[in-house]
What does this fold into?
Amino acid sequence: MDMDGGEASVQVAVRIRPVKQPCHEATAISFVDSTVAVTSVHGTEQTDVDHILVETFDKDAEASQARVFERLGEPIIRGALRGISQGIVFYGASGSGKTYTVLGTREKPGLLSRLEKALLRPDLYDTPNEIRVWFSALEIFNDQAQDMLATKPLSERRHAPVFLHHPVLGVQVVGATETPVESCNVEELIDFSLKRRALGRTCLHASSSRSSQVYCFRVEVQGASGHPSTARVYLFDLAAPSASRRAACSSLTALQTTVRELSEGSRPRDSTSLGSPLTLALRDALQGSWCSLLVATLCAGSQHASESAATLRFAREMRQLQTRPVASKTRPEQLQLLQEEVAELRKEADQLGLGSMLKASLDDRSSLIAEIVKQTACQTEESCKLARQRTKALEWCGLLTENSEDLRRKDTTTPYLLNMSDDPVLAGCLLYYLPQGERISIGSDLDSSIVFDGLGILPNLCSIINSDDRHLSMARPDFARRHVLHNGKMLTTSESVQLSDNDRVCLGRAQLLLLKIPLQPKAEPKPLQLECKLPGNLSELLPALQVQEDITFEMVHPLLEHSDSLKNVQCYVKDLLPKLPASNGLACFTVLREVCYLLDEANLITREVRPEDHMHFQVELIWDIERNPEEVLLIALISYGKGIHTAPATGALPDCQVLHYWSYRRFLEKLDEMREVHRLHCQGLNGWTGRGDPFHDPWMEPSADALKQYVLTSSCQAATTCGYVSMEHGRTLHKASAGYATAEGDQLRGRIDELVQELEEKNAELEEKDQIVGELKEQMVQITNLLGGFAPEAAQRFVLEQPEPEAPCSKEKRDSPPSETEHSCTMTVSASTSEGGFGVGDTRDTRESPKRSRGFRVDNFGASKGNHGGAALLSQSSLTPPHYYRDLRR
It folds into this structure.
């Protein structure tokens, strides 16, 4: 990896995490010599690699980390000391040991800490020269980079670091904080970056595996001959890949596409390379001037075979790439080159005018010059200043600079709060002490003792009082009733509530804290990461449901008060539970409770991001309630009028309009997008800018016209990039080869034909649905005419005979044509007799009218909308023909 001048293939190392014994799980990975194979249900995937490292679970696990450094770290150090930049990419599924290989633990440090110690000891490599090292840490989330060593508050909007590519200097970072590590241990900087990541999560349930971490060492060596050298060592801890569209990371998807195209010998599209910061940051590692190494982490268990096979395919594609490592220019050489280019560009601008491309090139080089000058000045004299700023930033949030584990060992009596997270690295990294006799206030206000920022965090959220290190109490103001959950329950009163060890306090929907009271009796302590691991199942976060025999409404009624969305459907729950068997009723209520918990989160995001749009989510159940509840759930997005400033608590208001109906699965995808939008809304420089865009607005669904426009725009952009290659931000254009353009054109035309065919199918489906809607409107007109003789106040409500719950339809019944009996219903009208109408208790069979042969069905939807008394509102959803739901279900 330390060659200079010639071509070099990307090195690939595979680290295998074996099955932990004793375990009955089979092993899906085998290796012979330098070949690794993964056997899954889809076949066998194998490839040749350069290094095979097998992790161990015994007491000698530290030696396993040391062997990783011996095999991989030492060549990296030797190359960096010669002035050749290094790029190490860590790729693998969640739980495969990817982050553990990078960071490790206090007792078993990872590759990052070992590289820092080795760089500061050049005498170990027969290089007794003067070396100075700087460290920076970035996070790439949702195609935006964030500085993890910044000391400004997270809520303060600021310019994010950007990656720029120079044709000679390669990839450069502008706007990141660089800290000298001569006088600072890198473990302290990593701990600070982890705390900042944990504080920066604005939504509790946003997946942390969708962000990539970038760590960088800048190394300057003063050689014995007086000739200096400069190099960078990058470590990329990539986001976890996922086959699910819902959990996919856009920046990682762009990188995978680029690597696949490069391995096939084709040129990646400019929009893919330049549009994703992660791909741009790795540009020199894929086809530039770095020495590149891919560390692929695999789980040997058979249940992870598909993920391991996908990781191995990516490793094979990376191994086919070629780079040309060369020594980097020193800082003075870089500064001189950029100043000459700026002078040339300004001269060209005076002659030809300052165009957009010329201005972009000039701005980029000016930014690089300012960055180099700043880095030259920010050395030893800034080290102490940056350390003080980091300490002040943590104290401002109520944190201490020391590691959580070290603090727990020092103080064994004072109660404290720990953050919970789905990421083992972030779980428990935030520790807040609760001193005796003090009132600890929590909120987003800067004067609070503990400061948080995120979804549902109010300026004054709650307060905790520690009486004697054994007895603690918590209180909240009246307006924070919905924003503080104690063990999954709302605090129904503003009076103090006594706290116990291992209680969970949920603050808004941003943070979940675990209370630890060391002096209270407790069981055997668990490791910190296990105690603070966020449960993957929502039912573990909600109040426990104690059901011994049949579930009844009286059992679940106390739980309805802890969720606004669940409280709004209590009439439906009261009517539904007696009609279902015990097992079905429990399953239905469990799913409904989890859905309502997520609906509360979606409504919080909507109110914070789009308060002026007056939108609200609510849940409805359709048709066969004895099926799997997740299959018959509908999530309705409702606009409740701009003149109303609160969501409807019960019933449907006259000016409510249903914007969308989503399935439960589709709603989960949209909710993930809303969480990303909320983070941009809180922390992005320009906030969220995707409003009104059907492809980037999670509150919208793209229409057929929008899809057509998107296909046309994409095809035009792809056709433009097929014929030309942009060099130096578009200043020089070169024709691509005719064969390449022809192949790309054929592939593009084939893709366009597929999209056009898909659009035609969608249009046909929409026309069929429009026809059904037209028929329903005709029925509405007929029913409106039928109600014409009623008194106005009597025509608003029907009291329906409550039918017995229907059994699930058999296949024969679902496939059979609807009968006349099935298309009819009997109505009991709760209105006084008027001219031309029916009297109270009169019935009319719709089979008497041959013109209305399709009929309609009235379901008990009114209860789900807060309609008390078991009566159903006559709405469009209650007039849907039964066979339409059968077709929809198929």
About this structure: The two ends are 57 Å apart (CA to CA). The chain has four domains: 8-201+208-327, 397-534, 553-701, 790-889.
